[in-house]
Amino acid sequence: MRPAIVAVLLAAGCSTVWDPHAPKTVTASGDGGHVTVKHGQRLYLPLATEPGGKYEWRLAEPPVRAVLAEGPADDQGFNFTPVRSGEEQLRLEYRPVSGEGAPQRIVSYDVTVPETGFRAWLRSLFGRRSR
User: Fold this and answer.
1) Are 43 and 82 in contact (CB under 8 A)?
2) Confidence of residue 13 (pLDDT cuts 50, 70, 90)
3) What DSSP designation does 24 have?
4) Cis before 114? omega within 30
């Protein structure tokens, strides 16, 4: 009986359905606003487009980012990964695919990526203290 239980547990550990190392996804509002995403997490912006439509979402700013797109947007939105700590504003514009014309919609996100690791721990011990 015990070898059967061990075999079942080993087989369950090889399952591809659940990945314990997959990043936690933080989903922001489709209307923009403030969002905090930590290193090791994924930021999802649910900005849908019409498949084959005449408009697409484009990242307008900033040029240097705390989060980077994991690839092109799909029909439902974007995935971003934190690459450095800090605060920034992501501004996305829903523009004609041709690149000509004014944006149909603009959405802004105030993104915070908190500092982590040894430096954050040191800063918490020796950082500025209120008087």
Assistant:
1) yes
2) low
3) P
4) no
User: Could you tell me the residue range of the domain that residue 51 belongs to?
Assistant: 21-126
Q: Cα separation of 34 and 91, whole Å?
A: 12
Name the average pLDDT for the chain: 82
* Of 18, 79, 74, the residue nearest 44 (C-alpha): 79
Task: Indicate if the pLDDT at residue 17 is higher than 70.
Answer: no
Where residue 42 sits, what CATH number does that domain have?
2.60.40.2020
Beta strands 42-45 and 25-27, pairing class: parallel
What's the total number of domains in the chain? 1
Place of tokens 């797109």: 69
CB atoms near residue 11 (< 10 Å)? 9
